[in-house]
Specification:
The complex is a heterodimer of chains A (308) and B (299). Chain A is an all-alpha fold and 308 residues long. Chain A has 14 helices and no strands. Chain A has a single domain, classed as MetI-like (MetI-like fold), CATH 1.10.3720.10. In chain A, helix 3 packs across helix 14 and helix 13 runs antiparallel to helix 14. The N terminus of chain A is likely disordered. Chain B is mainly α and 299 residues long. Chain B folds into 2 domains: 75 residues, no CATH class; 209 residues, MetI-like (MetI-like fold, Orthogonal Bundle), CATH 1.10.3720. Chain B is flat, with a radius of gyration of 24 Å. The chains are: A mainly alpha (308), B mainly alpha (299). The interface between A and B is large, with 104 and 94 residues. Chain B: This is ABC transporter permease subunit. Chain B: It holds the Pfam family BPD_transp_1. Chain B: Keywords: Membrane, Transmembrane, Transmembrane helix, Transport.
Amino acid sequence: MMADPSNATRPRLSAILSGWTPQLVLVPTLVAALVYVVIFSLWTIWISVSKSTLLPNMAYGGFGEYAALWQSKRWIVSYQNLFLFGTLYVVGSLVTGTLLAILIDQRVRFESVWRTIFLYPLAISFIVTGTVWRWIFHPQTGVEKALHDIGWLSAQFDWITDRDMALYVVIFTGIWHSSGFAMALILAGLRSVDADLIKAAQIDGASMPRTYRKVVLPTIWPIFVAVTVVLLQFAIKTYDLVVALTQGGPGVATTVPAIVVYDLMFQRGQIAQGAAAAVMILVALALVLVPYAIWSGIRAKREAAHHG
Amino acid sequence: MADTTHQSFDPLATGSRARQTRSRSIVYLLLGLFALLYLSPLVIIFMNAFRPLEEIVREGFISLPNMLSATYWVEAWSTFCIGGTCEGVSRYFSNTLLMTVPATILSTAIGLVNGYALSKWRFKGDTWVFGLITLGVFMPAQMTLLPWAFVLGKIGLSNTIAGLVLVHTVQGISFTTLFCRNYFLAVPDDLIKAARIDGAGFWRIFRRIMLPLSPPILIVCVIWQFTGIWNEFLFGTVFTSGSNQPITSAIVAFSGSGTGERHYNVEAASVIFAALPPLFIYVIGGKYFVRGLTSGAVK
């Protein structure tokens, strides 16, 4: 504006500018999104094939870090953990969420109180969740100690310090945190089901569980897909929960990919390999999200054709 | 109750009266058991923030308290030593507050205008712009750590709360733009057209028509952003250190270190300080919280 040579062009320029207001307003966000999504991604991908170690070195170094990553035992364990954790966490949250939603759907009294109780963990950070549950699960402070104190001296509950069982502690805590989310969305789905459909089933003599299993739940299956995708996303990105609950231990028993990324980048000074691990997380996310995006796109189109 | 749309269907109203009573008690029994499971961590930690340390060490966390004292709350807030500084969690609490409030306001304000521009002023390529912005919702934080560290260093915001505000604002805009754009799509285009014929411009329509319509989505954005940023851990840990860290990092700093004497009661009180603000927001705005979840997840 300062460089504007003559006064005569000023109103015309501002008129032109005002015609472009919507686009101009979006420019800062567009630039930020371009940098954040595109440039940062390419940057990290480049680091993963560079010669960086403790400090960035942007010279091309090939795909050796990916090979090294997939040969490291820690990474393999973390990936296997992700599969087991992801599967049981998603299934567990869905089952618990569905059960809670159906229970609440029985015209119970104080519905909003129940809902508030089951959903509040979601408002609390994974750090707080993990810290509290660690105290509860730890043999020295939690359930085992309480059982000893009431006289059951041989009671043993030390999953959190047991290599083979620690991951199930993480899974349980994850389900505790997220099943309310599944409940909220599934309950919204249950409420959207056509009441006539249910009445028809009941007139046919179907019992309550049967009505849900055969009529209600099948009609809201797209909601289950959506919840699954969101939860899988949570699972792939899981980091804070494990840090607060078990710190990846005992040993590497509960290590997940996001922890490996952090360690490689900021603890071990292997920036390139850390970046490679981060790219693998992106790949895992893409494997979940791209098919979902395509599927929802097709469904939206089909639905539009249906109504059009 | 208030749910009139659902009146016509009562799945339990089948079968004999005895059977109805029985199924109804099973429903309440199950709900009660689950409620116990969900609430117990909250109760346990709250109780232990009042108990003397030797009692917790002797009896563990899950035990009825004999002696209660509120001094651990004061200690947790003002004198508890975390990572070398003995200023309690108040310092980290205010760090988080100073990070969360500006980032929430900025990302919500920008998202609101973006959502309006993308839904009511369609232009060529607008869906691409929207698509790119919403991709930010799915970006794993791990992909952005090294670039952010570099950028924050270059612009002199390493280890500052301002740096975290920037990171959270950029990430948050993706969410708020998505929420607001989908919300504003439901506003009739005729309303905008009529205003434009009357000579109203972009900002005038925003102020006069869109802003008065936006409180519901504003609340959704504020709740979503506030709880999300307050609870965030990874960025805070990577981009700040020592006494500049947010409260989530402070909790990991004292609870994660296996060495030294434990102060379970003070730690429990500190953890509650960290959990309280988002919990408070959730309890007063629960309905909008759920709405945010639904629109954020399904769309």
